[in-house]
Design goal:
With 150 residues, this protein is an all-alpha fold. Helix content is 67%, strand content 0%. The protein contains eight helices and no strands. Helix 4 runs antiparallel to helix 5 and helix 5 packs across helix 6. The longest helix has 17 residues. The chain is globular, with a radius of gyration of 16 Å.
Length: 150
């Protein structure tokens, strides 16, 4: 791979059949991120593969934390990293990663963690996480405005 785009494209194409290979390639290819726009998609693939496919929650969090120090990691990149770290923490059973996130980002992290747990056949945990995401995503006065009993 010579570019970040090629790495990500190959990673998404190969991650189901070769998740460990993709994870190892991601872990050793930080240098391919040359633009701030690379950070969020890189983090998303890393989170998906190390979380849902491998269940390597801590390794994923460690790698995401390492991305923070890259010169291309701007404020948007740091926000994406925080969401993805929270996703892995929640999927592993630690919801403290949600504490510093906005309500929208907490809902994102919970929903992504639910998907990771469902992909690992941890359905009770997935349902609990998704329920939490739904609670956060509800508009505060929707039932009042629509006169619904929810």
């Amino acid at each position: 791979m010579t570019t970040c785009a090629e790495l990500l494209e190959a990673g998404w194409a190969e991650h189901v059949d070769q998740p460990q290979r993709v994870a190892d390639r991601l872990a050793s290819s930080f240098g391919l991120m040359t633009e701030p726009e690379h950070v969020a998609p890189y983090a998303r693939l890393l989170t998906h593969v190390l979380g849902e496919h491998l269940g390597e929650w801590q390794r994923g969090m460690t790698l995401l934390d390492a991305l923070r120090s890259l010169p291309v990691c701007d404020a948007a990149g740091r926000a994406a990293l925080a969401r993805n770290v929270a996703t892995l923490k929640c999927a592993s059973g630690d919801e403290t990663g949600l504490n510093d996130l906005s309500q929208e980002d907490r809902a994102f992290a919970l929903a992504a963690a639910a998907a990771a747990c469902a992909g690992r056949s941890e359905f009770a945990r997935a349902i609990a996480l998704y329920s939490g995401a739904l609670d956060l995503a509800k508009p505060p006065n929707l039932a009042t405005h629509l006169h619904l009993d929810v």
